[in-house]
Amino acid sequence: MPTTTMKESKKTPLASRANHEVAAGTILIKNGALLPKDLEFETEPGVPGWRFVRDFDVRGMDRKIQKTGWTFFCLAGEIKATAFGIDPQRMVRTAIERILAKSKSQDFNSLEITEMASAGSARFPLIRYITVSAQSRHIQESMFLGRGAAEADSGKNKIDPRGIAKNKKPQAQKPAIEPVPVPS
């Protein structure tokens, strides 16, 4: 069975937290996510239960995952959250935590930051707010979302390229017109 092959950065956790700039295109991977054996990349500590992927954007990560034969799904719907504060990176992490709390994090194992917008207040110049938008993503072996490879390959209701279901039990043909008893 494939195991997670994330490599931790050589930096200390506090140093990596301070140095990792979260921006649009940043990918987070859930701790303990089932990943392909041949997939290797470096990560840094992120928000609780999640790690930031280093040196890969979404396209690069997708290509690397496809080379292993797995699929990197993009789930429908954008999730947004806003956070207020003084430290921009802390506000981003707070917004990401809110996004993960809003979403059903058990249904996906990765997250892509798609957009970040920051603004300040004329009335309170030191207080800023940031809105982070994210897209849920999922890495899995099967090309059918939400199914494990064993379930997808079990032969039940497989569809060939012509769109014909295979391995279904043939059903008895029903007559086009059923006979109706005629009263005498």
Structural overview:
With 184 residues, this protein is of the alpha+beta class. The protein has one domain. It is 20% helix and 32% strand. It has four helices and nine strands, in the order βαβββαβαββαββ. It is flat and about 90 Å long. The N terminus is likely disordered.
How are strands sequenced across the largest beta sheet? 1-3-4-2-6-7-5
Question: Spans with pLDDT under 50 lasting ≥5 residues?
Answer: 1-18, 149-170
Query: How would you state the average pLDDT, rounded?
Result: 74
| Residues in β-strands, percent | 25-35%
Supply Rg: 24 Å
Helix and strand sequence: EHEEEHEHEEHEE
Which sheet architecture does the biggest sheet show?
Answer: 7 strands, mixed
- Share of helical residues: 10-25%
Q: Report the total helices.
A: 4
Counted up, domains total: 1
Question: What's the overall geometry?
Answer: flat
Number of strands: 9
C-alpha end-to-end distance: 70 Å
Oligomer state equals single chain
Structural class label: alpha+beta
Topology of this protein?
Blueprint: E1 6-8, H1 13-19, E2 27-30, E3 41-45, E4 50-53, H2 58-67, E5 71-85, H3 88-102, E6 110-120, E7 128-140, H4 149-152, E8 158-159, E9 165-166
Parallel strand pairs: 1-3
Antiparallel strand pairs: 2-4, 2-6, 3-4, 5-7, 6-7, 8-9
List keywords for this structure.
184 residues, alpha+beta, two-stranded antiparallel sheet, 9 strands, 20% helix
